């Protein structure tokens, strides 16, 4: 893996000189009508998701011209695609790519060329740190851990916290974000334990958690894993009457609550009940494309709506678009979507379950 990353970095760096040459050779690239470049993969594994993002963007652009480029879910192909978009077709901005593994090299090229890139779906949190031309859309789904951590440190004030997370990309990502936020707020994570998703034997993790003797445990688990985790908390006597389990919104699903209510004394979880209802978008997407939209389509649509708003404000070139995006990072092109995480924390609601009773806490 390290060898692959090194090779990729060498290729990107080697291409920088050529990119800079092209910038010098074409100093007036921006003197063209506004044109979006949409980067998606047509590679079979990701084609459906790519088409969803493409169609969401096209719907949101509402007539603004756009070209579509295939990244093939491959970093090298993605670099070739964005070079064509920037230097041959002279796009004003890039929307995409779909995946983080292609978004990172595309962002490097876009930054060097001075072309704004807006990523609606890449999960790499550090993407905007590449440079001032690189932007990432966020939704309340991206700030659940932040909202929960802030509530815990403000209202619960535990001495320490342990984490149990599924040993997959989802569990590790959620656990990492939660741990980082707790650390920023001055909290202490004593241990992080991982379990195999779908496993019914969590003995090792449970015994380790019991030995920590902590009264606060954050659990990052899928909906299907929660019942088994809850029952084994009880079986291995990990919890006492003062222990609080913290989790994401899956812990509030009625069918899940029914499964764990008899095992766990106290659970606090997030809820996004005020986010995600966009009937007008769903109707328009279904009418145009003949299918129901996915979350990926929605995020593509939101990115396009942000660009559309910029164009309506008279933005027509790369540099002015970069200024506009930076100055308007609090704008929500759709309710609950923004370039700034801080604008979205208020969408996350906190609930608690005690003895079968559920009530809001914030």
Spans of 5+ residues with little confidence (pLDDT < 50)? 1-7, 23-30
Integer-rounded radius of gyration:
23 Å
Major sheet: size, sense and barrel closure? 7 strands, mixed
Mean pLDDT comes to 90
- CATH homologous superfamily of the largest domain? Response regulator
Succession of helices and strands = HEHEHEHEEHEHEHEHEHEHHHEE
- The CATH topology of the largest domain turns out to be Rossmann fold
Total discrete domains = 2
Task: Determine the structural class based on helices, strands and strand pairing.
Answer: alpha/beta
**N-end to C-end Cα span:** 44 Å
Strand proportion, as a percent range, falls in: 15-25%
CATH class of the largest domain: Alpha Beta
- Gross morphology is elongated
Give a written overview of the molecule.
With 362 residues, this protein is of the alpha/beta class. The chain has twelve helices and twelve strands. The chain has helices spanning 2-25, 47-61, 75-88, 100-113, 144-156, 169-184, 203-212, 226-235, 254-260, 279-289, 295-312, 318-327, and strands at residues 36-40, 66-70, 93-95, 117-119, 134-136, 161-166, 189-195, 216-220, 244-247, 267-271, 349-354, 357-360. The protein has a seven-stranded mixed β-sheet, with helices on both faces. Strands 2-1-3-4-5 form a five-stranded parallel β-sheet, sandwiched between helices. Helix 1 runs parallel beside helix 4 and helix 2 (47-61) packs parallel to helix 11 (295-312). The longest helix is centred in the first third of the chain and has 24 residues, at 2-25. Mean pLDDT is 90; it is low at 1-7 and 23-30.
